[in-house]
Design a protein that fits this description.
The structure is a single chain. The protein starts with a helix and ends with a helix. The chain has one domain. By secondary structure, the protein is an all-alpha fold.
Amino acid sequence: MTALAGNGSADKAKATGDLADSAGRADRDREVAQSTRRVVMASLGVLKDQKANRQRTRSLALAAILVVLLILGPLAWLAFDHFISGGHLGDLTTEFSLWVCILCPAILAAALVAGWLRKRRD
């Protein structure tokens, strides 16, 4: 009977030790889950920021193209109308319209390339 009592207390001590070990493992698992959750949420935030930056860049590029078309459209119309009505390339209005139609997109393209290179370098 005493052997059984001694064995029972050893089992009880082992069960208590197992319980403490499992509680320690649960704490470690909880800490790992929390750190993993933090990393995933931070990554999600970074992805959302990148998506917002891409959308902002796309919308600015579309706005710039629209402004250029709205500004250059009437000048191009004026130049082509002048050619159709029998005007010459050497006329001052036609030359001015053509130079604006050529230089404005070139300046805009240079600005876009410079911004792209600066952003790529950073």
